[in-house]
Design a protein that fits this description.
Aspartate Aminotransferase, domain 1, Aspartate Aminotransferase, domain 2, alpha/beta, binds pyridoxal-5'-phosphate, two-stranded parallel sheet, 358 residues, 9 helices
Length: 358
């Protein structure tokens, strides 16, 4: 049976990329070895990591003022590395509190200094990105940290703040899903496993001058400078993840770059939101201005119906639709690799389910 995978992360990868990797798995470019069996210092892997970086630079139009790094430990290690490297003594750190992952980032920052909440949507159960006009940003803060897409609550920034201090963004769940100006950021980071690869590697895009902030007593493996100086190869990097990122970004270039990817993502999310809007059965709890194009969350009239929906959807080949355990409901994660066809088929299922159960 053909399955459409709506998992939130690790998430689906383009079928042609997986098939490509499968073909090369045991014998990479006639070397007689799989890519995971080859030295990271050898010619084959050097070409792979350089191509992965070059693809990301091209697709996102990244200038030489920025380093592109591959680091293990996922987005969650970045929650700690950021304050560890970028907190300026005597200043506080601003965080936008927009949900679970933003709170997890704040928790780590508190280990290194004063954390201030620039805004919070906690009192409305994180159903929106707080109105930028009401944020309290400290012009002397070390930096401002935002979470551009809130994977669990289904919210996303459609307008970005313009702080006077470096802006740091957790883009784990909308990385490379739309066109943005990297020059507006001090640092961007993302675990690969939602939009551009498997788990085990995070991509960090960092304005190089910020590296001067790192305190001297920071452990080697937790210093951004180590990854910049060593071209992400101070020690053995996560070779398979980087190889997959290379293939996914090759695919993104082939289908027309970030502009084309964004157009498809817009069409997919609009189609589902229109279906929800047109229905008295499905309900989206998110403020319309803040709706995520990556994670579409919705509720049914009862938890019993939600359970039935997930079960019947699964039997029909739509997997991964159960909402995060902390919020319940339904979540359709429609990252870059999800084709429009998958969303159209899901909408057909939603309409049929509504008819049969309302
Ligand atoms: C998934 C996710 C994370 C956690 O990523 P790990 O790589 O598992 O550490 C952090 N932030 C956001 C926004 C996420 O969606």
């Amino acid at each position: 049976m053909k399955v459409f995978n709506f998992n939130a992360g690790p998430a689906m990868l383009p079928a042609e990329v997986m098939e490509h990797a499968q073909r090369e798995f045991c014998d990479y470019h006639k070397s007689g070895c799989g890519i995971m069996e080859l030295s990271h210092r050898g010619g084959e892997f050097t070409e792979v990591i350089e191509a992965a970086e070059k693809n990301i630079r091209e697709l996102m139009d990244i200038s030489d003022d920025y380093a592109v790094l591959f680091i293990q430990g996922g987005a969650s290690l970045q929650f700690a590395m950021i304050p560890m490297n970028l907190h300026v003594p005597g200043t506080s750190m601003d965080y936008a509190d927009t949900g679970h992952w933003a709170s997890a980032a704040m928790k780590e920052a508190k280990l290194f200094g004063d954390v201030k909440s620039a805004c919070s949507s906690k009192d409305t159960n994180y159903n929106k990105i707080p109105d930028l006009r009401h944020w309290k940003m400290d012009p002397r803060a070390s930096y401002l940290h935002i979470t551009t897409n809130n994977t669990i609550f289904g919210t996303q920034y459609h307008t970005l703040p313009e702080p006077k201090v470096p802006m740091i963004a957790d883009m784990s769940s909308d990385f490379m899903s739309r066109v943005l100006d990297v020059n507006n950021f001090g640092l961007i980071y993302a675990g690969a496993q939602k939009n551009i690869g498997p788990s085990g590697v995070a991509v960090v895009i960092m304005r190089k001058d910020l590296v001067k902030r790192t305190p001297a007593n920071t452990p080697t493996m937790l210093k951004y400078g180590t990854y910049i100086d060593g071209k992400s190869m101070y020690n053995t990097p996560p070779t398979f993840g980087i190889y997959m990122i290379r293939l996914v970004t090759d695919w993104m270039k082939k289908i027309g770059g970030l502009g084309a990817v964004e157009t498809i993502n817009d069409a997919k999310s609009e189609a589902i939101y229109e279906t929800i809007e047109a229905s008295n059965f499905y309900n989206n709890p998110v403020d319309p201005e803040s709706r995520s194009k990556m994670n579409v969350v919705f509720r049914l009239p009862s938890e019993a119906l939600e359970e039935k929906f997930v079960k019947e959807a699964k039997a029909k080949g739509f997997v991964g639709l159960k909402g995060h355990r902390s919020v319940g409901g339904i979540r359709a994660s429609i990252y870059n690799a999800m084709p429009l066809e998958g969303v159209e088929k899901l909408i057909d299922f939603m309409n049929a389910f509504e008819k049969a159960n309302s």
